[in-house]
Amino acid sequence: MENNISSIRDLIEMTSSLNFIDPADVPSIELYMDQVTTFLEEKLNNNKRNEEEKTMTKTMINNYTKNDLLPPPNKKRYTKEHLILLIYIYYLKNLLSINDIQTLLKPMIEDYFGSNDPSKSIDQIYAKIFNHQKDHYKDIQKSIMNTFNRASEMYDPQNEGYLHDMSLIALLSADVYVKKKYIEHLIDNMRTIQEKEAKAREKEVKAKEKEAAMKAKDAAIKAKASNEARAKAAQKAKSQPNAKGKAGATAKTGANAKSGVDQKAAQKTKPNQTGNRSQIK
Predict the structure, then answer these.
(1) pLDDT(250) > 90
(2) Helices (DSSP H) in 108-160: which residue ranges?
């Protein structure tokens, strides 16, 4: 381990060899899965720790889609926006959990992915971050070199290589740890906001559903009352002709009865009239 000596030259060479995908290199045409994995492998190959490490596999991409880190492809084709999100995921997955990445990218997917608004272009956002990141990366290199020098003050990198590197790793880890904790803090705040917004939307949906149910109930009551009123009116209209018919039948029966009585009376008077006539003669 004593021979494992760190050097500024080694630090600069290692950090300078890392690949970051230029926005201009991201294809604007839609790609199939094989083309996506090939593109990422070619552009990020230098970032692999060893040859066995995979940059991005089909299984990884499918899992990202299942876990809502990536919108599903359109007819198995991935857009430029898909590729940019995969680039974000590639860097973030080495530092954050899947759940944290999901929280971080959720607003990007819901509000920016597929948007026609130029101010919400994922392409433009990535380009802006990339351009600022180039300058920021120089600051990161300077920060690492400063940490290297602090470790060198503690232990001679030539004669105490292991203790020097151990100290350097401890100092760098403390830096990474603090930054990681702050990143997690920011994501936790995002999650809290998202949960509050989700509850507010859920409450609003339930209120609308309740209002719609009340309106439907009132409409049903009114419809029932209207149907009952029409049924009663129809029943009443149906009973009136029968009453008229009964009254007519009763009148007709009375008239017939009266006519019968008159006929009998006439028949009774006819013999008397005959007798009277014979008496006169």
Answers:
(1) no
(2) 122-154
